[in-house]
Fold this sequence. Notes:
By secondary structure, the protein is of the alpha/beta class.
Amino acid sequence: MKLRAPMPELVGATEWLNGEVTKDQLIGEKPTLIHFWSVSCHLCKEAMPNVNQFRDEYQDQLNVIAVHMPRSEDDLDLEGIKKVAAEHEITQPIFVDNEHKLTDAFENQYVPAYYVFDKEGNLRHFQAGGGGMKMLEKRVNRVLDEMKKTAE
């Protein structure tokens, strides 16, 4: 997915956990962070406390959506996904992508992976891997600062 590309429609979920959202609900008011993770991904689990802290710190300024991207047959078990989500306090909406429909729409190949969209729904930052929360925070703040400037 290229920078400035529009956010794909959030369709094709096998299931939604913690509530369902649409692209239209996310666009217009505030930027959105969409992060891909998997129950079999050790780095994802390590990064989750940082993602949760980020989500809580920016809850008034940022939409946060999780996408569960299975990497093997074992990752398709919905009860397993629910269990790991509860253990790691993933309270934001989770798009369960057992058929890789959203994964394909994003052209995503990685977990964890982070996509930051501005409030117009255009991709502003992409990053993959377990580290780099400081960079992610910097990019989100840049999008938020631009939003404040255009509002003034």
